[in-house]
Amino acid sequence: MQSFYKVVQEDFAEVNTLIVNQLHSDVGLVENIGHYIVDAGGKRLRPLLVLLTARALGYNGNQHLSLSAIIEFIHTATLLHDDVVDVSALRRGRPTANANWGNAPSVLVGDFLYSRAFQMMVEIGEMGIMKELANTTNVISEGEVQQLVNARNPEVTEQNYMTVIHKKTAALFEAACETAAILAGADAATCKAVRSYGYHLGVAFQLVDDVLDYQGDAEELGKNVGDDLAEGKPTLPLIYTINNGSAEEAELVKQAIINSSLDKLQQIVDIVQRRGGLEYTQQCAQDHINRAKQAIALLPETEFRSAMEDLADFAIKRNH
């Protein structure tokens, strides 16, 4: 077990139990799909961020457990919806929920998880947390729509892409950290600092995903290598290659994006590597990790802050 899990091991176990309990529904299909996707595991980094941040700020209550489950439900709902939009067939090494049950049940159970998350927010009763998570779910939805608009568009700029991954991925990392700080009664400067940590960690996490899509192992990733290209997603390695490759190379990458085609995947991977697209993306991720660690330098020196730093290092070095 990684060090950043160990320091909140008991909390983490309680969150997992709470997640299972909160999936209860009188409708069997809701429970079946809910358990299927939650039981698939994953890293659960977002609820982990809640636990680490709350403890790093000296929180000694138990509402951080509910907040962690809320964050995980919001994330899981986005996964269910994502897989339908992307027509994905594999996630975390298993068939997606939509592959097993169809699109309509997946979307509706995603809606159930969103609404269950907001029911649990009401029970916490902290308006600042409700406001932050209401805004965050709206921002995530905008990011999803913008990504859909960007699909098969080889003219997407780096700035536009960074805006999308902020909304689609980093926003929930930000919210996990900031809502934990609100729960702990932190001052405005501390809330801003941990939010910045979440932002930079989330961006780096997505950028590493972009790299792994072109050099990862399908079994370790739990998805097929080249999935982003198959969905026509102009991710940063491709954007960089279009801007820095030869005219012929740029056109090859553009056509693959436009056609959502894997016909020349190996050739494109070779071009992206040769032109430094993966190296550039990895360096951008490292820059964000450095800034994430700098952001929490003002927190008390505890095992929990150390775990947050270790988590940042893991995000950049991981292979899945």
Describe this structure in words.
The chain has 320 residues and is mostly helical. It has one domain: Farnesyl Diphosphate Synthase (Orthogonal Bundle), CATH 1.10.600.10. It has 17 helices and 2 strands. Strands 1-2 form a two-stranded antiparallel sheet. A hairpin with a 2-residue loop joins β1 and β2 (94-95). α4 packs antiparallel against α17. The longest helix is centred in the middle third of the chain and has 28 residues, at 188-215. The radius of gyration is 19 Å and the shape is globular. The model has no long low-confidence stretch (mean pLDDT 92).
Q: Which whole number gives the mean pLDDT? A: 92
Beginning-to-end CA distance, first to last residue: 15 Å
CATH superfamily: Farnesyl Diphosphate Synthase
- Please write the string of helix (H) and strand (E) elements: HHHHHEEHHHHHHHHHHHH
Gross CATH architecture: Orthogonal Bundle
The CATH class is identified as Mainly Alpha
Q: Hey, roughly how much beta strand do the residues contain?
A: under 5%
Strand order of the largest sheet: 1-2
Query: Which class do the helix and strand fractions yield?
Result: mainly alpha
Helix amount: over 70%
Into how many domains do the coordinates divide? 1
What shape does the CA trace take?
Answer: globular
Helical stretch count?
Answer: 17
Number of strands: 2
Task: Let me know the largest β-sheet.
Answer: 2 strands, antiparallel
Low-confidence stretches: none
Alpha carbon gyration radius: 19 Å
